[in-house]
Amino acid sequence: MVISTEILGIKNALAERKELKAKKCSKKGKVKYPNPAFFKAKTNMDWKKQADNLKEVAGIFVEMFKEADHKAFWKLQLDRTKNDLERCALEFKQAREMSPEELKEVFLYGEKTLGKLYRKGDMATVRREWRGLADTAYDFKEWLKIWGMLLGTFSKDLIPALNSTFHYRWMISYFCCIGFLDKNTMGQKGSALRMSHLMTYDIFRYTAENLVFLAKCDEKNGNSHELNKKVVLFDEMTMGQLMGGFPDLLGIPYQLLPVFLVSELDQLTCIPYIDAVESFGLPADTCPVPSSECGALVVDALPHMGTCFLSSSMPCDGSVMASSYMSRRFPDLPVYHLTFPVRYEYEETTADAVEDIKGCIKFVEEQTGAKWNWDTYFEQIKRFNAETAYELQKWEVNKTDYPQIIGPSYELFRKWNYEMDGGADPRIMKTFGKVNDIMMKAYERREEAWVGKMRYRGIVWSCPAHYYANFSNWLANCWGVNVLVEMESLNFTKMLETEDKEEAFMDLARLYERMVMRRHTNGGYHNVVDELWKQVEDWRIDIIIMYQHVACKNMATLQGILDDQARDKNYNMIWIEHDLMDPRTVSRKSMREKVNEYMRTVMKAEPVDATLLDFDDELSM
Amino acid sequence: MKDLKHLIYFESLLDNADNELVEQAKKDGKKIIGYTCFHIPEVLLNVDDCVSVRLRAPRTGSVDIATYYMSNYTCEFARALVERAIEGGFQFLDALAGVDACSMMNRFYEHFEMLKCNTNEKCFTTHLDVPYKTEEFSYNQMQKQLEKRLLSRLHETYGVDISDKAIRKAVKEHNEVCKIMTEIGDMRKEDNPVITGYEYHVLNVVTYTCPKYLILPYLKETLEELKKREPDEKPAFRARVGIVGSEIDDPDFTKMIEESGARVVFDRYCFGSTPGREVIELSTKEPALPQIVRHYMNACECARYMADSKVEQRRKTADRLAKEYKADGIIYEQMKYCDFWGFERALVTHVMAEEYGWPILSIDRLYNAKGSGQLRTRFQAFVESLEIKKIQKGGKV
């Protein structure tokens, strides 16, 4: 009884402190993001249905267990254990053979060869990387911090969140998120590692929060009527800035988490969806992004939720008709099609795009009962402008002889911030500030972003595959090719209007028209061909990593012109075929081989880390 | 049935993009405007002394050079046009009226410019931005684009009269062709039609690729001939089918289906007549241009239109045509690598079969499909399945 009262007392004190803090925040005009009420919204789970589902899942597990070749399984475990022991013995032996100076170097500054971290048939690396004492300790601290954040976030409504794993196979892949972080920071140390961690943390937090919302809203799962009334779904290829004018609503890029982002964590996730939609009749030559989205709809792998859906024609032809699959699966979900002019540089079309935006706002108002709020919109856009200014600062630093912020974490952060966050989350500003401080200090100290691996200045062009294949990271670690910038980062950098309402709409339209990918692949060949040569000069590029996404018609139809002009200009351009989240078309190994061959035969170069030239990661995430 | 008097002549007109009637028009001082897509109103390309030619690449062999430029995973129609352009096959054009509707065809226009495939000093290419849906502002957008990017340029470059009067005159001539083609097309509704799908396909493609004023006399004569034509005593087909889908400019494709035992009774594809050969009704209450824009945008059945209302319209149109033309089944086809039709075809084949109850054959095909044994087998199998269905329903075969 006494204990209970004490607990109650602590609880009350905590609640009072929380309330006080919230009041202080609201006095200062600060609003908590995301709205805590969204997490608190009541769920309406149908427990009987959950029990039925659990029974079904358990049945599948039992069947799998029965069908499994247990002998082979245990043999594999034994072999792996043996292999682990042998590896440990070898590493110990190598350490003993080192001179004290070499040993000290490894102990303080990390291991030099990374290929040994991969093992054929494994989904993850055999162990985490040793980055040197200080950086490994930092890395571990951040690892703990991320786990803490993930647990904290999922605890906000744990049951539906965890229950998602029994409904959707893509949810399982999120358990590998730390592996994704390790992969993206492989070889990074010092300031570069710190910046990568800061940026990845924000993306992970956004993902975790939205996964909770998806679980709470999903009719099959949390089924929160209260939250669903507030949810506006939008196509993952539609930017999020529009939601700034609806502070009481929750905008969710619908397919981002179940399809797109998860495929970057685990390239094998979407294969069943691609197969499903191809069996349904979709030709195999279409882009795997809309194909996977449609496939997920075909096999009912997307949550049923929200009040309405904002579809879009962006970024390319493949995405256009994907929305009809959505209407087919969820006929009760009202849809608005945002369709921006393709020839976006024709200024006379901007007014039409504005009409479309106004129509979209009206639609959201009608569907949700919410009202467009200019104040909150301008507030968000001011933040977005400040973030753009930080971004431009990064570009300036990277254009110098001492680029600082490179690698997949930065590339992903830029894309996510520009496209999804768009200034919505005030917490991101802090990250921008911190990253900027670290970057500027590192620049003043003339640090190497990839220590000892800064050989070539690279640019990535066309539809990028580096997250799936961890490619820009591998380029740096294996060959010293440092990707300073990628096509998808180089988007609209105009400061958006934050006072005049009509002009603000015009700017918003211009921004949307120049979304990731679309900015270059639409509106005429000059946006992607001439623009490349301009960027190559601006960034003083040595090597162009030209991704050749086999299913991207917008880019495939320019390959001859790009080739002709690169030859005329005497640029080093490496064509790398890939098929985004479908590694069966082009494996990661084949992609790496293209670079290896070019570097050996054309550049006559020696690798920085020869152990990364050839390794088997067919099954790894 | 007795052969049509001008059929061989019509077929010969389809052997080249710059056929003898196009050459004749050029000699008559006409401006030849090439185009490839329904999204640009054909009638506006026939204003004043302009003549429209819907571009094709007949007798295409290798597309190797175009494949170098555009890769082998892209629309073969677009590649065939690039190849033909590089070969100099479109040198006769005075302008190319392009629309940025699909990425691959857009790149054809761009290659036409970049590779300087036409050396006429005044020849220009347009890149119109066309809407994805049919809202009020979309009609205005289209109108503005046509005024600024097409009509004004025709006027500035060649002094073309783009007045309302000139546009109405073009519509009148266009409607003459449409009336004839509609009348001929309606003959396919008969139980034992006096025209084959192949013949109609030839006639229809001719109307797209030849100057209207030069082809009209032949069309009129053919119409009269058809009115008197006696059908075969026993129909030479075992099933009636309609075709729905993307671009088909090769009547031999229709011929292959008919050789497999079917009669093609309606043509709901690009280069087809539904839409394409409807009369444009103009009122005098407002200028012609906005009315033309609405006509084309409303009639358009392109899978690029993504709004749900348009998706529904496409399904209903296919259903209506199949009923009107008494089809036994529908063939959904797409040019291989066409993204719009790729997504549309996969879904709509299920919808039309499950919700509308139509037997469906779903295929993708290359630009040059007439030699495909695989397709022929599929057509034959489809005809057989339609026959079996008829038997099961107690009908006669």
What is the residue-mean pLDDT of chain A, rounded to a whole number? 93
The percentage helix of chain B is 40-55%
* Cross-sheet strand order for the largest sheet of chain A: 2-1-3-4
Structural class by sheet pairing and helices of chain A: alpha/beta
Helix run count of chain B: 14
Layout: helices, strands, pairs:
The complex is a heterodimer of chains A (621) and B (397).
Chain A: H1 2-27, H2 36-40, H3 47-67, H4 70-97, H5 100-109, H6 133-154, H7 158-163, H8 169-173, H9 177-185, H10 190-217, H11 225-228, E1 231-234, E2 250-253, H12 256-265, H13 271-280, H14 288-298, E3 308-312, H15 317-320, H16 322-329, E4 335-338, H17 350-368, H18 374-399, H19 408-421, H20 427-444, E5 456-461, H21 466-469, H22 471-479, E6 481-486, H23 501-513, H24 518-521, H25 530-538, E7 543-549, H26 553-556, H27 559-569, E8 572-578, H28 588-601
Parallel strand pairs in A: 1-2, 1-3, 3-4, 5-6, 5-7, 7-8
Helix pairs in contact in A: 6-10, 9-10, 10-19, 10-20, 13-14, 14-16, 17-23, 18-20, 22-28
Chain B: H1 7-13, H2 20-27, E1 31-35, E2 50-54, H3 64-70, H4 76-87, E3 95-99, H5 103-114, E4 124-128, H6 136-158, H7 164-186, H8 197-209, H9 212-228, E5 239-245, H10 251-259, E6 262-269, H11 288-299, H12 308-324, E7 329-335, H13 339-354, E8 360-365, H14 373-392
Helix pairs in contact in B: 1-8, 3-4, 4-5, 6-11, 7-8, 7-9, 8-10
